[in-house]
Write a structure and sequence with these properties.
elongated; mainly alpha; 141 residues; 2 strands; two-stranded antiparallel ribbon; 52% helix
Length: 141
């Protein structure tokens, strides 16, 4: 699995919001400046994250984005899944059941690829934004 630019940018943006630890919304322009991310692309990503329930927004003067949940409740797996879709090693299909494999070795490999995706998802689920804030502030996870 390769985390896409969208997955990386989404993670960076939410980590920035978590590091701010404020009840005041952060404007997109400020978030883009703090993270070094391109504002137009960041705006698209934030709209996706909002639709997935990871951020909320406030319009108008003093508006911007806030985390929708506590940093301890948002995992990297959730963020990546929200913008990239399911975390999988590849789109190969499900392993065949009951000896129904019709191509030599295919079923064995399908099972391995599915397991790899499960491991990646489990590993990213083990990291919350709160964990990342601790690391960014000099504490180890």
């Amino acid at each position: 699995m390769r985390v896409s630019t969208r997955g990386d940018y989404a993670s960076r943006a939410l980590l920035s919001l978590a590091l701010r630890d404020s009840n005041a919304p952060t404007p997109v322009k400020e978030l883009a400046e703090r993270t070094g991310l391109p504002q137009p692309y960041l705006e698209q990503i934030l709209l996706t994250l909002k639709a997935e329930g990871l951020v909320t927004s406030k319009r108008g003067v003093g508006g911007g984005y806030l985390l929708a949940k506590a940093p301890s409740e948002i995992t990297l797996a959730e963020i990546v899944t929200a913008v990239d879709g399911p975390i999988v090693a590849g789109i190969f299909g499900e392993p065949h059941k009951d000896g129904a494999c019709n191509h030599e070795g295919q079923c064995v490999l399908l099972g391995v690829w599915a397991e790899v995706g499960d491991h990646m998802r489990d590993h990213l689920s083990g990291f919350t934004l709160a964990d990342m804030v601790s690391v960014a502030q000099g504490s180890a996870k």
